[in-house]
Amino acid sequence: MFGDMMGMLGKLKETQEKVQQTKERLNTVIIDEQSPDGLLKVSITANRTIKSIEVNDSLLEDKEQLEDYLILTLNKAIEKATTINENELAAVAKDGMPNIPGMDAFLK
């Protein structure tokens, strides 16, 4: 029993390291998103850090349209980044979990 406990603790530490490595890797995964007409472009990491925003000069003349575009485009990019982030981290966590009957229900 004690050996099983030590094995599980080792597996937990290994999983924590893999999660940390995955988080670091997700800093290099870039999601590019743009407004439907291409006048606004944003790039963010899968960890939801904004890397760049490109605004076409024509949008600078219409503050309300620029604000709307920023909200819509950033939200779309954040949604995609969140999906990637959650899927990647869930896969690492699930891989590191001990095989306990019924545990799959909690990971869905």
From TrEMBL:
It is found in: Cytoplasm, Nucleoid. GO terms for molecular function: DNA binding. Residues 5-32 form a coiled coil. SUPFAM superfamilies: YbaB-like. One of its GO terms (cellular component) is bacterial nucleoid. InterPro entries: YbaB-like_sf, YbaB/EbfC. Keywords: Coiled coil, Cytoplasm, DNA-binding. Binds to DNA and alters its conformation. May be involved in regulation of gene expression, nucleoid organization and DNA protection. Homodimer. HAMAP family: DNA_YbaB_EbfC. Belongs to the YbaB/EbfC family. This is Nucleoid-associated protein GCM10007383_08810. It comes from Arenibacter certesii.
